[in-house]
DNA sequence: AAGTTCATGTAAGACGTTACATGATTTC
DNA sequence: GAAATCATGTAACGTCTTACATGAACTT
């Protein structure tokens, strides 16, 4: 698969970035759907350079601090485009440790289960509220209604998807808690 | 983390299973939220046995075929319960290759993007329909309305959650496709 | 008898996280 | 001057997938 490879090529599509910049992108909205640590990113940048998909120039930050600014090669652009247009099967499993626990709920008392689900609900509500805030900021920054050609369309896609995902989690948790609290 | 460890302990909570049985559970509804290949399961069973969380007896299938039937030890039950009641932070990243592509949508033409999203929509609709079918079967098999004490409550939880997840994906894809098809 | 399923294992390699390691720059 | 951030790398370890390997039992 080497999905990190494509994540890096994709991030470089708009211009040059350092490994540090790439690391930071994974801490922002993109991190909702993909991420990697710098210890994985730096070796991957080396590999992509060796393979000819990216290249770098050395820039100086301040007076002495060296950083490598990477850009896509033409071969890298082609590789990115081939991946972007490829239609993959949807994954059978999307791992979720909380849902694994939920499957084993028969090993908990009703009180323990309500406690676990209530904790999850609170955490999901908090995350939802953060995402709602980011979404509002994005919408307010637009001077036109969002459309395919908006420069922020990718940003809009990941934010709305993450938002819907969390809304859906919260609603499901609320519904299940209502069922669980019913007298048996 | 060693989540597979807990997945195995959890599956063994209701009685003895072979490694092969465990492999099959990951192909059913639980596989929506956790799975592992047999090549990962057999070594983990060995490790859990060495650690004293599970034990096995050798059973004979047919006349000669040996299989190992595993059960939880008391220590294993405690370990499972401790994990089940532990409240973890929610993960920052839930990886989704399609959403990674979505973030890079500015590198596609409108036609390519509509094509990619339409393909995803079709696949998600198909999966939704399968899940809806499994859900209907489960509901019809119940002789009482679902509740915390139903033996199938865990099954109900994973099925409803997977169903809502796919419904949510489909709705979002339809909404985005409508935006993308708008005249610029 | 052939094909599928049942059943268990190991080996190699890819992917991912935590920790180790270093040093410059900026902000308070 | 101290702390946080910028910046890049490696090492060790854990997780996960694909492939290799074998043989019994059941179904057609």
TrEMBL record, chains A, B:
It comes from the Bacteria. Pfam families: PadR, Vir_act_alpha_C. Residues 8-81 form the Transcription regulator PadR N-terminal domain. InterPro entries: Tscrpt_reg_PadR_C, Tscrpt_reg_PadR_N, WH-like_DNA-bd_sf, WH_DNA-bd_sf. Residues 94-180 form the Transcription regulator PadR C-terminal domain. This is PadR. It comes from Bacillus atrophaeus (strain 1942).
């Amino acid at each position: 698969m080497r999905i990190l490879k494509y994540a890096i090529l994709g991030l470089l599509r708009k211009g040059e970035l350092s490994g540090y910049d790439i690391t930071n992108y994974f801490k922002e909205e993109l991190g909702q759907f993909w991420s990697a640590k710098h210890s994985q990113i730096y070796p991957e940048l080396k590999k992509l350079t060796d393979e000819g998909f990216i290249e770098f120039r050395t820039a100086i930050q301040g007076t002495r601090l060296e950083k490598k600014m990477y850009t896509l090669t033409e071969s890298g652009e082609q590789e990115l485009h081939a991946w972007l247009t490829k239609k993959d099967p949807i994954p059978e499993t999307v791992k979720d440790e909380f849902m694994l626990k939920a499957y084993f709920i028969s090993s908990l008392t009703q009180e323990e289960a309500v406690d676990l689900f209530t904790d999850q609900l609170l955490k999901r509500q908090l995350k939802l509220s953060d995402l709602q805030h980011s979404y509002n900021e994005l919408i307010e920054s637009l001077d036109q209604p969002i459309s395919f050609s908006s420069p922020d369309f990718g940003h809009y896609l990941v934010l709305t998807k993450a938002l819907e995902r969390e809304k859906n989690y919260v609603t499901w948790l609320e519904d299940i808690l209502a069922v669980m609290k019913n007298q048996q």
